[in-house]
Amino acid sequence: MTDEGAKKQKRPWLHWLFTVFLAMTISILSLYVYDAWFAPKIVTVDFKAYLEGEKKRYLSGEIDDAALEENMERFQQKIKSLPKNTTVLIEEVVVSDAETLRP
């Protein structure tokens, strides 16, 4: 028997260790990719509070028509810029804790 053949027979656990390591790495990477790009995410928006805050600022004269319009556009763009796998719900319809999008 050659030296190379003897080394392979003496350490069969090394092959199993490599197989387990490779399987774990692929599994973890697959879960990360699924969670980051494919798993549905739910985000809530406290739209009522946002509108009330903007109304108070507008009526107190803190912001004018143009600033109000700009703030609304910025908030709408923030919602549109969320990833495709994100669902946006109004906070009043969500029963449990969910991430809340702030303006």
Outline the secondary-structure elements:
Layout (H helix, E strand, L loop, with lengths): L2 H8 L1 H27 L2 E5 L1 H13 L5 H16 L5 E5 L8 E3 L2
Parallel strand pairs: 1-2, 1-3
> Mean pLDDT, as a whole number?
88
Main sheet, how many strands, which sense, barrel? 3 strands, parallel
Number of domains: 2
Shape: rod-shaped
Number of strand elements: 3
Radius of gyration: 27 Å
Question: Which structural class do you get from the secondary structure elements?
Answer: alpha/beta
Distance between the termini: 73 Å
Tally of DSSP helical segments = 4
Order of helices and strands: HHEHHEE
Percent of residues in beta strands? 5-15%
Helical percent range? Answer: 55-70%
Low-confidence regions: none
Strand order, main sheet: write it out. 2-1-3
Could you state the oligomeric state of the chains shown?
Answer: single chain
Provide a descriptive summary of the structure in words.
There is one protein chain. 1% of the residues are buried. The protein starts with a helix and ends with a strand. The chain has two domains: 1-39; 40-103, no CATH class. The protein contains four helices and three strands; from the N terminus they run ααβααββ. The mean pLDDT is 88. It is an alpha/beta fold. 62% of the residues lie in helices and 13% in strands. Strands 2-1-3 form a three-stranded parallel β-sheet, with no helix packed on it.
